[in-house]
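Bench notes, afternoon.
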Amino acid sequence: MPTGFIGTGAITEHVIVGLLEHGGFSDTIIISERSQPRSARLAMRYSNIRVEADNQAIVEQAETVFIGTLPQQTLDVLSVLSFREDQIIVSMAAMVSVEQVTEKVQPASRVHRIIPMPPNELGVGPIPIYPPSKEIEAILSSIGTVVPVDHEQHFSTFSASSAVMATFFELVAANARWIESTGVPGDQAAQYSQAVFHSLATQAMRLDAQQLQEISAKCLTAGGLNEQLLHATQREGWFDELSEELGRILDRVQ
C-alpha cells in the first residue's frame, strides 16, 4: 500500500527527497496539497508522488501515515480524521506526545515519533524513533542513523539537542566571515571553513563515547593555537551557557 504524508512542510520534503534519492524507495507516496507550491514541486519531480487535497483520502489509502503538521495544529488536524486499526502512525511534530497522538488516531495503536533533520535529504543525520519500530527503521535507515529510543523522556532530550543545528551553521559561517575579513576571497573562505567542519565531523563519527570526550584535549599543544581558542571560549563560559540553554529548551519540549 502507499505511504502517506499529512502536512507537506520543509521537514516532510527533506524526508521524502531522502527516501527517493538515497533510500531506493519506489512505492507510491501520497502527500497533502498544503503547502501547495512544495507539493506541486515534489509531484513534478517524482513520478511516484501523488497529491491529495483531502487528508482523509490519504489516510484511507495509506498503510503508514507520517504526520508533518505544525505542532500547534497537529491534534486539531488528527481529530477530524478516521484511522484504521492496522495502520502505523509516525508523528514528526515536536512537543506532541505519543499519548496525545494515540488518543486522536484510535483505533490505530502503533504510534511512533521521529525527529528528522534537513540533512536526511542527503542520506545522513540522526533519526530518533520512539518507541522503537523495525518497520519504520527499515524505511528510514537509508536516510540517516536511526536511534531507537525506549523512553519518551530520552526522546525529548534528543529533540532539545537538535537545537544546535542553527548554532553549528552559524559557527561555520562565522569562521568563513572571519577568514574573508582578512582579505581572502569569499568563495575560498567558505570552501575552507566548510571543509574544516566537514572533516572534523567525519573524524568525530569514528569515535566511541569515551574517545569523543577525550578528543578535544588530544588536539591541544601547550601554548598552541587550539589551546588558545578553546581556553578563550571556556573563560567566556560558552560551553556552560550551551548546556544551560539546552536545559531550558528541554523544559519547553517535555
